[in-house]
């Protein structure tokens, strides 16, 4: 997956809450471009997001 030039919503933090918010927003409107930003190198909470 490449880096998008534009996004509609940015969610900061890939912890459990950030993953839920990003996932629910993407599910609610599949046309939204949702970017999830995480400061850690690896997170186990968001394995289902692409």
Distance between the termini: 8 Å
Strand order of the largest sheet: 1-2
Helix fraction by DSSP (H/I, runs of at least 4): 25-40%
Q: Per DSSP, what share of the residues sits in E-state strands of 2 or more residues?
A: 15-25%
Characterize the largest beta sheet: strand count, sense, and whether it forms a barrel.
2 strands, parallel
Radius of gyration: 10 Å
Ranges where pLDDT stays below 50 over 5 or more residues in a row are: none
Averaging pLDDT over every residue, what do you get?
83
Shape: globular
Structure in a nutshell:
Helix content is 26%, strand content 16%.
Question: What does this 3D model show about the protein?
Answer:
By secondary structure, the chain is of the alpha+beta class. The chain has a domain at 14-45. Helices cover 26% and strands 16% of the residues. The protein contains one helix and two strands. Strands 1-2 form a two-stranded parallel sheet. Helix 1 links the parallel strand 1 and strand 2. The longest helix has 13 residues, at 16-28. The radius of gyration is 10 Å and the shape is globular. The mean pLDDT is 83.
């Amino acid at each position: 997956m490449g880096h998008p030039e534009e996004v509609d919503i940015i969610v900061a933090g890939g912890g459990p809450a950030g993953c839920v918010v990003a996932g629910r927003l993407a599910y609610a409107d599949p046309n939204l471009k949702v970017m999830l930003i995480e400061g850690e190198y690896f997170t186990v909470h968001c394995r289902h997001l692409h």
